[in-house]
Amino acid sequence: MAVGAVARAALWTAVVAHLLVVEYLFIRYGQGKNSLLTVGKFFGLHLAAIMMLQIVLVARLPWLDRRIGMDRLTVWHRWIGFGLVWTLILHFTFIIVGYADLASQPPWDTFLSLAGVTASLLGMVAAVIILVVASISVRYVRRRLPYEAWHGLHLLLYVALGIGLVHQAFEGTTFDSTWATVYWWSVWGLVLAALLAGRVAVPVWRNLYHRFTVAAVVPESDNVVSVHITGQHLDKLPARAGQFFIWRFPGHHGWWRANPFSLSAAPNGRSLRLTAKAVGKGSAGLRNVPVGSRVFVEGPYGAFTTIHQTRPASLLIAGGVGITPIRALLEEPGGPTTVLYRVHTVEEAVLLPELQALAKARGAQLYVLTGRTGAGTPPNVPFAPANLAAAIPDIVQRDVFVCGPPAMTDAVVHSLRALGVPRRQVHAEKFSLA
Prior knowledge:
Keywords: 2Fe-2S, FAD, Flavoprotein, Iron, Iron-sulfur, Membrane, Metal-binding, Oxidoreductase, Transmembrane, Transmembrane helix. The chain crosses the membrane at residues 9-27, 39-59, 79-99, 111-138, 150-170, 182-202. This protein has helices at residues 3-29, 35-57, 62-68, 70-103, 107-115, 118-136, 139-142, 147-154, 156-171, 178-210, 281-284, 323-330, 352-362, 385-391, 406-418; strands at 213-219, 224-230, 244-248, 259-262, 271-277, 296-301, 314-319, 337-342, 365-369, 399-403, 426-428. By secondary structure, the protein is an alpha/beta fold. It folds into three domains: 3-207; 211-301, Translation factors (Elongation Factor Tu (Ef-tu), domain 3); 306-428, Nucleotide-binding domain of ferredoxin-NADP reductase (FNR) module (Rossmann fold, 3-Layer(aba) Sandwich), CATH 3.40.50.80. The two termini are 30 Å apart.
């Protein structure tokens, strides 16, 4: 079984096992004072279970990340988040209606009465924070906010988490059993430990140990620059070709500005290299990063590596600056390899001389595909199923690694499925934070 499939099976088996225990505990100890409150407690219990899963998905645990990929974990986190919001609304509604029925008073009066109880008030505050953050995470709103602003507001969820935990501790009525209470808080302890380890302890320790520093800044073209990073004991950094880091340049951009850039060269134990195109403020300013300045690095992250390769032969497809992880992968030894590099013009082909030298050294085939998509007669559609099959006759027998603009990546993946390339042989990753 592929390593990604093993990781997914392990994660979801743990989730299902936990939910089965939760269901048992609820059936045994979760009865409320009336049927409405019982339903409200049911949703409250599962709201907490969903929050546990949400934390694990974004804890950036190395074992999960390099087997599943941050992009996929983040997508799961986003979609499960919608379920969390609806579960929260249902929990709140049934609790208010349940207590209103119990006290024979209008729901609004019940709401005001509960707001005067510390445990209930804490739950309400946590709920408001979650709903506010959920509203700014709707795609229409999210696309209109700078990443830094969205991320800063999103961090309020940790405040909601802390308040929610105190709310649960004060309530203390769900489980009338010592061992059930011990189990519940033990799981919470493990989840919080995973979060602190992945998001705080590991990054801080690695930066203190490796002491990353800018060694050189090399312009590759008018709008592309490479930054070389050195440090201590880099041979012990568990990075692989195809992975990416989250880079911060505190003395240049400030701590709040973080950018995910993949390695544009395979890690060699002595230095790291990122290559970026000037798109936003962060990447555009890299050309001016002072040599010798300190760098705060998080990672390595990503499942876009050869540990997922299932066949000896491979096809590497890149579009634009998406060539950076592909160029790194080309350094790794392997079987027959073909590289398709999609750019509008040859002049836009970043790192082309390096690619040509690497391809020659490895005996790999390199094709630069130019021109605008759809132009000409017949239309220029290099990644159409028929064209891919003609260029790579044995494509079904290869692992395919794809990195480029989302539209190109989607088109390639669609064509690969049309050609019958098994899903386990298709590797595509989006390098982004949200």
